[in-house]
Request: fold
Amino acid sequence: MFFCFTFGFEQFKRKSRNQVYTCPHCSAQDVYLVKANDCFTFCFIPLIPCSGTKQLYECYTCGWVNVNQPPF
Ligand SMILES: [Zn+2]
Reply:
């Protein structure tokens, strides 16, 4: 029998669709508030959250990221 265990750290992001902002970088209306958690994963299952929830703003058009509150 052979078991393959994989473990590591992964960041999980939850995108909030409540509010959309305009990106100052590419001017697209595609910036969302994202809540990110770093988790310890085992066999791709998140087991232990390693840090508090981080809030950041991410543009899904150009990839621009900001941790500041709007207005940017
Ligand atoms: Zn952008």
About this structure: The chain has no helices and five strands. The longest strand covers residues 7-21. The pocket of zinc ion is lined by residues 23, 25-26, 28, 59, 61-62, 64 (CB under 6 Å).
